[in-house]
Specification:
- By secondary structure, the protein is mainly alpha-helical.
- The protein contains twelve helices and no strands.
- The longest helix has 49 residues.
Length: 335
């Protein structure tokens, strides 16, 4: 067995243990009764429904990879579909560990194996996130407009918590704005005065590379396909919830409106807590309560959907890292 194969195997085992550790982290706060309820729900749910839900989630990640590749193309790079897909899975996997760590990891891993400057990839990732935020706002708007009489008060409650989490008071914002303006002025002045120095030139190149990646969306060759991929990603998210209803007898009659409402409030919950742990399940329970669903069933369904999504990442995250290393072992990965 070659040294490269041994090294890849060791990496795979290490990341597998990391996945097990993450599974422990996400379930350690549960009581014995709650753990039993979740296990019982998974055991008694319809596997013919659960499996398609898992496939849909994986497919949404693959479409996301294809969309990201479209943003990379204007930078004159053509990474393999498999590498981009593995990088996307790795990104979601590491986001379970620390907020935003996954964004850096997926850019680092893809840059390593495809020889793409990481700063440019970060720029494309920021552009992708801007598109996703716009989509989330649209989903929220549709939900509020169509269901305000049902979920209006809960929407206000969640929005208040969301704003409290990300807001900065006016005084701090003013001070930060002034400091940023002064800092940008000083950086611009330094660039002009010290442009010939290698370190300054390198920093400038990094900033310009990130800007080039961010602007890649303006140079897409097929904008309709990009926006179709975006629509498809969110439709697959929605479909996984709608189809998931059929896994439990008590939810089989629910339609698309409850699905999009769960997608909206579940997205809020995923933003407000690390990996959505706890908050996602409660948001689903609260949402289903608006449609006459028993609280126990609502909480159980929240755990089922969250568990499936999280387990997929915990399982396929380490596998993706291992496969990415093995399939690219013949490439020179030196920077």
């Amino acid at each position: 067995m070659s040294k490269g194969t041994i090294s890849s195997f060791i990496k795979f085992i290490l990341f597998l243990f990391l996945g097990v550790f993450l599974l422990w982290i996400t379930t350690r706060s549960l009581s014995t009764t709650e753990i039993y309820a979740v296990k019982n729900l998974i055991y008694t749910s319809n596997p013919l429904i659960v499996l398609p839900c898992m496939v849909i989630v994986v497919l949404s990640h693959y479409i996301r990879a294809l969309r990201w590749k479209m943003l990379i193309a204007p930078l004159s790079y053509t990474p393999k579909n498999s590498n981009v897909f593995f990088a996307v899975i790795i990104g979601f996997f590491f986001n379970l560990l620390f907020p935003r760590l996954g964004e850096l990891m997926k850019c680092t891993m893809l840059g390593k194996y495809e020889k793409i400057p990481v700063n440019q990839l970060i720029g494309t990732m920021v552009a992708e996130r801007i598109v996703d935020v716009i989509c989330l706002v649209l989903v929220i708007s549709i939900t509020i407009a169509s269901q305000f009489h049902v979920v209006g008060e809960y929407a206000k409650e969640l929005w208040t918590k969301f704003v409290q989490k990300i807001s900065i008071d006016v005084y701090q914002l003013t001070i930060y704005s002034i400091l940023i303006f002064v800092l940008l002025f000083l950086i611009g002045w330094l660039f002009k005065k010290m442009a010939s120095q290698k370190r300054i030139a390198k920093i400038k190149a990094l900033v310009l590379g990130a800007k080039e990646g961010l602007m890649s969306i303006r140079h897409l060759k097929n904008k309709p396909l990009f926006f179709f991929y975006t629509f498809l990603i969110w439709f697959l998210y929605l479909s996984s919830i709608k189809i998931g209803f059929m896994a439990l007898n008590e939810l089989t009659d629910l339609g698309w409106i409850p699905s999009i409402t769960i997608l909206t409030f579940g997205s809020f919950a995923m933003i407000m807590t690390q990996g959505g742990i706890g908050a996602y399940q409660l948001a689903v329970q609260k949402t289903l309560g608006f449609y006459g669903i028993n609280q126990v069933v609502g909480l159980a369904f929240g755990w089922l959907i969250w568990s499936l999504q999280t387990l997929l990442l915990i399982i396929f995250g380490p596998i993706s890292m291992g496969l990415m290393s093995i399939l690219n072992k013949n490439k020179n990965t030196q920077p």
